[in-house]
Amino acid sequence: MINLSKLSTEWEKEVDRKKTEEETIKLRDELFDLQNVLYAEQKHSLLVILQGMDASGKDGTVRHVFSCMNPMGVDVKAFKAPTEEESKHDFLWRVHQHAPAKGMIQIFNRSHYEDILVPTVHNDIDKALIEKRYDVINSFEQNLVDSGTVILKFFLHISKEEQKKRIDERLTKPAKKWKYDPADKAEANNWDAYMEVYERIFDKCSPAIPWIIVPSDHKWYRSYTIAKEMVKTLKSLKMKYPS
Known about the structure:
The chain is α/β, with parallel strands linked by helices. It has helices spanning 17-41, 58-66, 84-87, 93-96, 114-122, 127-146, 160-172, 182-188, 191-204, 219-236; strands spanning 45-52, 74-78, 105-109, 149-157, 211-215.
């Protein structure tokens, strides 16, 4: 079982930052080309799941990795607390309707995993029901895969210290003040509880579709790691433009 406290949130020290940032630019160019083939071929779809603690860089990842793509072929859905309407349905109702169509890339900024994380940490739902949700999610994701969707699940792994720094920046930097939510600091107090649930998620929801844990204290390294994985995955599909 994965122990997050033993996994580094830092970049590998032997990696050269300047060369890595130059490589990220090349990867973004490749992503643009690969997305065009994906869109034209209409055989596959790609679902990218971004999970992580508050301020781990989910918004930044969308901006720095995916902004190179054609907006016609990419959609982003941010899952917040369920609305009144959403709460009247099963927990996957609001998620399934955003599953990507053939040729599309769908990004989930937070996802259906919030429906395990939050109720577990806050004891909002019966534990037996939460346990069932692990199996329901595995079946849901396998159904998407069987329908031609490739799924990439990224956990943006930051340290407590880096999270505090980023949340504090939201109080001082004008361009980030709009992001500040007093609840973020309150949730930071539940750090250990969230880590424990994430580790359980990695254990129970990984066999068929493994989680990729991304060291995310440094934004440039986070972007490089995700862009590299995206390119590798799309290339593996051996896509071709229709004749």
